[in-house]
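If your schedule permits, I should be very grateful for your opinion on a structural question. Please examine both parts with care and let me know of anything in them that strikes you as inconsistent. The record follows directly beneath this note:
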Amino acid sequence: MRVPALAIATSLALASFHVHAQAPAAPTVTEGPLRAHLSFLADDLLEGRGTGQRGGDLAVRYLETQAAVIGLKPLASGGYRMPVKIEGTRLLANSLVRFQNADGKQITPQNGSEIVFGTAGGKADISIDAPLVFVGYGAIAPEEKWDDYKGLDMKGKILVMMVNDPQPTAEEPNRFAGKAYTYYGRWLYKFEEAVRQGAAGALLIHTTPSASYPWSVPANGFSHERFHLAGSGNPIEGWLQEDVARSLFAAGGFDLDALRAQAERRDFHPVDLKLSVHAEIHSAIRQIEQFNVAGIIPGTDPKLKQQAVVYSAHWDHLGMDEGVSKEDGHDHIWNGAIDNASGSAALLAMAAEAVKRPAKRTQVFLWPAAEEQGLLGSAAYVRNPAWPLSQTTADLNLDSMNFVGRTVDMGVAGAERSSLYDAASKVARKMGLKLAPTIPDLSGAYFRADHFNFAKAGVPAFNVGSAVFSGDGHFEFEHDQEHSSAKMVSFKKDYHQITDEYHPSWDLSGMVQQAQFTLNLGYAVGNAPEMQSWKAGDAFGKVKR
């Protein structure tokens, strides 16, 4: 039977429309807009986009203006801003923490060199007298059948604990993920658990191997103004040098190493160290209102548009500090070009294309505040999201992007915990890429970017391209591997330094590639029949969204 040419053409057109309506492909990200946004956000005019500083306010204004220009839909409030209530706390010099044993012997560690401490409890003046209790790793991990607290009452006590996780054994080589870091090993979890236990405070015993960073890291952090969500922390929290902890334990009649050995067992019980703690904490506290920025692209499918995929990239960096000495002719501005003007710029470039061809699911573009202060903006977001978390299929985060050149692989560390890994594999194949090898997370990198707060809330999430700056040789560059790798290593020297500045000579082809991969993955999960899910047995899979 002959079919008229017009009928064939009409059928083909309808078929093409049907396929397009079912699964719209991700549009193409281009370099021009990305470079323009990056150069502006990293400019000295924005003064490092610091939390509670004018430069941060300018960044928010720029992002919300660009969101409107792009055509992102505002939030239910009618705008693009989401308030984040933050407290800034700076410890005053007349503060102290003193320990005393039953014989009246007193030990007062030197603040800065032997102990660092502060408050996250929201009060300017705090006086505490409390017993000191050793709680091992301070972890409650039902999936590991582990509970360091054993249901004992910790109210009004100051807890001292080890960082990292219970270590693997010959009998249990995969206990707490083996040699990899789990969230239970993170300082943030331990402080949070102390709050849940009703403790008066928490002190962590520092060693460089267990923390994966030297004493200078907490020492520097506690020497400056610290930020936290209003009313969210311990009356006292801090760190002890290992030698100081050893002396304190001995003053109470205990051996630190012996108690450490006990803490490696499931039958460990908290130990009263027979020491009292007297703390006088005086702080200058200021209330700060920062803003997450978010905009929405509604989905096209009548049912799936009730669900959303989130793309996130924090806008803040470390700001400026006139009290810091200039180095090698540099100014006092931590521009944060890579960390994370790059991710913020990429999200703007991606959103500008995504509005032209929406996915079946709704897309939320989110720029969290105060990531550098402890992932505070994303923590506030999951408490009060722009889209219900129960209807959020995934969060794809961008933080510190590739500024060296195109690669033949893509880092997806953390995606293996969920169905996102399978989706990422398919996207990579279509783009002619391979996925960078997955290695044990020995430093807890998965827990140090904004996607983690989504994971804690039960939403599958990871940081796309996270192998870029791993230093483990994961990334293979299309051209000049040796030169490109050397440039990647050089970034480590610039990380959180005033030298992290934008250079017009940067090859942004790799950044565009990374943004395109992220958008392609977003469309893949945005068009998928089912929402993304955690792999069986993953701790975050047990969290109700």
